[in-house]
Amino acid sequence: MKSDVYYSRLEKGKNRESCLNTLLNRIKDFLSEFKSRGVGTFVGIKMTIGDKANTGYIKPELVRIIVDNLKKRGAKPFVFDTNVIYTGQRQNAVDHLNLAYRKGFTPDNIGCPYIIADGVFGTDSRIIKVDYKNIKEIRVPSLVSVLEDLIVLSHITGHLFSGFAGSIKNVAMGMASRAGKQVQHSSVMPAINTANCTMCGCCIMICPASAISEKNEKAFIDSKLCIGCGECISACKFDTVNINWRENTNVFAERMAEYACGILSQIKRKVFINFAFDITEECDCISGDDPKIVEDAGIFASKDILALDKACFDMLTGKGDAFSRNGKIKTHLHQFEYARKIGVGKLDYKLVEV
Ligand code: SF4
Ligand code: SF4
Questions:
Q1: Per-residue pLDDT for 187 more than 80?
Q2: CA 322 to CA 167: how far, in whole Å?
Q3: Is the pLDDT of residue 243 over 80?
Q4: CATH architecture assigned to 191-242
Q5: For residue range 199-221, what is the model confidence (pLDDT) as tens digits?
Q6: What gap in Å lies between CA 283 and CA 173, rounded to an integer?
Q7: Rounded to an integer, what distance in angstroms lies between the CA atom of residue 101 and that of residue 9?
Q8: Domain boundaries, the chain
Q9: Whose CA is nearest to atom 4 of ligand 1?
Q10: Alpha-carbon dihedral of residues 33, 346, 286, 318, nearest 10 degrees?
């Protein structure tokens, strides 16, 4: 049987709020599962605010609509994210929360608290045993390990390693502790093509692990220190930091699928909503107000995370795969197939336009 994916098209003259309201009205059966149960139903709304310069993130006004909808059902929603391994304003909860408030994610605006799930320094990390090909244990904040009710809000973007970034990436990376994020990135090991290195020093300045130094007047990566975050690849303007795209990124995609599967198997009730507008080549961790690579489509929702991402991807790539970076990245295709294989969800879906 195919999984249902609901789609509210962002038509000309229709604003994003009404697009979302139309969708929420159609999936009210899904949302009714979050009704109050005794002492109250704590519904975690997972999303990301993007980094400082990012403008494509899901705006507080849209989050507020979902929060109010849940509160009407007697639920106690809260919005949460985790600290990142990249440099920027989200490496610890203090800077992260200050940035969230500056971007409008105050309790007054969104109607509920905004929480950093893995603590001030990202050290709250519990181990859950799993048994996948690459991963035998996942590391998540204790909040994630006890969460029963989850709504995942994902802004669709491209991604340096995974090609397409939707709900699977949001859950796998965004609901892992920093230690879990590092494990997922650890297959991505960049190398420097010294012939082209001008020793400008940009990669050294940006590396969050101090893994890059100068050696024989060229940049050098110490593989024992590298955490595979990929920041040096974006930072180098001379296309000098490279990775083995096919081998490295396929394992990266598999680890993400395994993390998503492991995390979601712990959580009883879950709904996934993808926002397909302001789609940039890089994800919200890196991207500023970059040129859009695909036209806005609308908002999608499903209880099947894989069917949702695949439906979204198919809709956005009808005129060609803008996420592949001219054919260089095919990781998303591997991710979809591998996610199906390990039981993350179904690739067969029925798209229901609302
Ligand atoms: S950013 Fe590129 S060119 Fe500059 S030092 Fe690093 S590898 Fe060399
Ligand atoms: S060397 Fe590059 S990929 Fe490794 S930690 Fe530093 S910036 Fe990240």
A1: no
A2: 18
A3: no
A4: 2-Layer Sandwich (3.30)
A5: 999 999 988 889 999 999 999 99
A6: 12
A7: 30
A8: 3-185+249-353, 191-242
A9: 200
A10: -120
- Residues near 150 by Cβ (< 8 Å), separated by ≥ 6? 43, 44, 45, 46, 267, 269, 270, 271
Strand pairing class (212-215; 114-116): unpaired
Gap between the Cα atoms of 138 and 100, Å rounded: 27
Burial letters for 47-59: b for 16+ Cβ neighbours within 10 Å, e otherwise? Answer: bbbbbeebebbbb
Mutate to test the pocket of ligand 2, among 220, 227, 248 (most ligand atoms within 8 A of CB): 227
User: Do the first three CATH levels of 3-185+249-353 and 191-242 match, i.e. the same topology?
Assistant: no
CATH topology of domain 3-185+249-353: Rossmann fold (3.40.50)
Where do the H-state alpha helices sit in the chain?
16-26, 28-32, 60-72, 93-102, 107-110, 142-146, 167-174, 178-185, 202-206, 231-235, 245-264, 305-316, 331-342
- Model pLDDT for residues 4-28, shown as the tens digit of each residue: 999 999 988 789 999 999 999 999 9
Residues β-bridged to residue 45: 79, 151
What string of DSSP letters covers 268-334? SEEEEEEEESSEESS-TTT-SSPPEEE---EEEEES-HHHHHHHHHHHHTTT--TTSTTTT--HHHH
What are 298-309's pLDDT values in tens digits? 999 999 999 999
Write the residue with the smallest CA distance to atom 1 of ligand 1.
236
Distance 56 CA to ligand 2 centre (A): 25
